[in-house]
Amino acid sequence: MNEKQVFEIRRRRSRQEVEQLIAEYESSGLSRSEFCRERGLSLSSLSRYRKRRARQAPAGRNALLAVEVSGQAPAPIAATGSALAVVLSGGRRIEVGRGFDTGALEQLVRVLEGV
Q1: The whole model's pTM is what?
Q2: Domain spans of the chain, in order of start
């Protein structure tokens, strides 16, 4: 080994750093390769982090949820009295009232979006 060779010592990312990276990727709107290139992160690392998080999901997270599909045209948000309305791709709409279970809503959106 000569003096000009440099070794880069990489430290392990903490669980919080990994969760932050995943959250930033998911909200970035960028492709995996674009996000990784901007962050100096390998595609395989991002994939590994996401797979690990999916495996560590709490039990029951993949449980089926009851869903009612309505063939009616959606009413304006103000007319429904809902605290929150989410319109998904394809025009699907989810409305929830105050005090809703955020975990159940997150799971429902993932199922409907095919994530």
Answers
A1: 0.44
A2: 15-55, 60-115
